[in-house]
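Researcher: Good morning. I'm working through a list of sequences from a screen, and I'd like to move beyond sequence-only analysis. For each chain I'm collecting a predicted structure so we can compare shapes side by side. This is the next one on the list. No need for commentary yet; just the structure.
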Amino acid sequence: MNLTDQLSTIVPQISFEDTETAFRNRSDWDLFIANLVLWMVSRPLLVKILSSATKLALAMRLPIKPLIKETIFAMFCGGEDEREYSRRIKSMSNSKIGTILDYAVEGNETEEAFDATQKKLLELADKAGKNPDIPCTCLKMTAIAPFALLEKMTTLQHPLSDEDKTAWRQTEERLNAVCEASCRAGKPIYIDAEESWIQGAIDTLVESSMEKYNREKAVVFTTLQLYRWDRVEYLRGLIEKASKGGYRLGIKIVRGAYMEKERERARAFGYPSPITASKEETDQEYNDVLRIILDNINLIELCAGTHNEESCLLLTRLMAEKRLPNNHPNIYFAQLFGMSDHISYNLARHGYNISKYLPFGPVEATLPYLVRRAEENTSIAGQMTQELEMIITERRRRKLVKSGKHSR
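Model: Good morning. Structure tokens for this chain:
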């Protein structure tokens, strides 16, 4: 008996095979587009060709924006502006799924761009505070700080110049302003993990913010990428610090998003890879951390960011074993918009706290995010195949219902 079968005997009411529930909020057209996009992103060579062609076409100002917006943008993003993404928020709210608004503009490295992003993040914190359908917000540190500065602060291989010190102070001020706004709004902010060679600086900033703002509840969340073999011990250290310091930990856990880049850099620079040797080891790390967190749930607030069915079932089982209610306020599941609706909507149906990352922004500005989303999806072919099969199954079911050959 495999892990999924074992867990389903303890939590038998949850079925991730219910496509009618999973895609209730998706129109036939939405499913057609999803079918097309997932078929494309399951082919690495096609993704590479289309990504390059798209960048070139936009640089040449060819009129392809409507095509992008109706396909991959519609699949993975909520819209370009509040008018558009508000419809997505309302639709998910009707199924008891919260929205994590993600300002997905990437790649700008000027002080003006960092200040503009900070302003947007302050607006989102205020919006979340007024809207119960937005349980939290999120932040990518490289959206408010120079990558090179974070790398220098992580490695500490070169002395800081006066310019570096000023930039670091500005980074601390930006992060502090956003965390203060989140605290006033009473809504958490999830701070993403990034590449290992800048993560040390991010960890330093976030740990300091957690100690400052997480006195009564977790406002600031750090993110652990559990394809890194050192993160379990890092978590144990965080637990010890928070316990001694009298503050709460906000922990979002994910498997990780930069695997190939991490391994290539480790080979190029001749240091041991920070990534586990296999997917099975990563899965084990993830599930071990779930157990550690549930054993410390009075100290830790958790966001389990995962598209893995077994990890989701494990978390529901651990909650049941500890007699925690499905809607325990310290425990959230999270998935990306456009992915794993069969997990999100079926868990929400059974009363678990679910939220979806909903990226938004101008089509041209979100292109780096969309390209990364497509490229990452090619590396998880098994999951993409499953997602595609679920959509095909639901499209067939709907055709049978319309033809009268299938009961509703």
